[in-house]
Amino acid sequence: MGPNIRRRQAENRSIQTSVQLLLTVSGIAFLVAGLVLAASGASVGGAIGSISDDWSEGEPREGDVDATDDADGAGGGSDDEDGDNDNESDNENDTGSDDENTGDESDDTDDSRDADNDTDTHTLTATVEDDDGDPIDEATVVVEADSGSSEPDSVDDDGEVEFDLADDEYTVIAEADGYEDTEASVEVDGDDESVTLTLEDADDESDDGDGGTETHTLTAIVEDGDGDPIDEATVVVEADSGSSEPDSVDDDGEIEFDLADDDYVIIAEADGYEETEETVEIDGGDETVTLTLEETDD
User: Fold this and answer.
1) Ranges 103-117, 156-170, 194-208: which has the least confidence
2) pLDDT tens digits, 71-110
3) Among 249, 241, 246, CA closest to 223
4) Domains of the chain by residue range
5) CATH code for 121-203?
6) Measuring CA to CA, which residue among 130, 132, 131, 187 is closest to residue 155?
7) pTM of structure
């Protein structure tokens, strides 16, 4: 062989050796990398498996849910039973209490009836009317006794009102607007009683108080010698009890006075006329008197 051939062979062997060395190193490197990757894969898989296990434990299994529901249902039933038992117990207690209360009320009612039966009452009917016998339907009545007075009670449309009273002596008082109060005594003694109270008109009572009797109308007419009315005249009425104030006549020369039965002097006067007077007696009826005035010489 020539020198060139040997050189080439040496170079080829050197290249083959370098390639083999490179392949060996690469193989080792791949082996190490594989081992590292294998180790890393095991660690990641373990972590993923742990997480999966924890998730599985956190979720209730279907069987567990059903069992829990059944258990809760059973517990609810127990609560319902306890509620029913409590309600039944309360109802029994309430019923017993109501029965006891009813019994107490019944006893009180019996006692009240016994007390009422100890004192018999009777009906007192009070009728309130005016002078003409007509009912005064706006009147009120009070019943007084030694033990006290009743509240004022209004009569009905017939002027009547009733009171339930025990045997005793009573004063019955009636009053109404426009009337004088009236009272009457009545005794309730084992039977119903009635009383009529007649109310006097307040105006009539006032008239009686002023004159002692009813009054009548005196009409005085003032005229001249020709019979014409003197509408500027004034008239005074005198009696033993005193005189009235001078009062002017109207356009017809007339004036009226309400007077009780008595003897009166009627005096009329006017400017330009002589004063004139007349005597008149009021005796149970209205009267009229005419006074004629004579003109003066002036």
Assistant:
1) 103-117
2) 444 444 444 444 444 444 444 445 444 545 554 555 555 5
3) 249
4) 121-203, 213-292
5) 2.60.40.1120
6) 130
7) 0.34
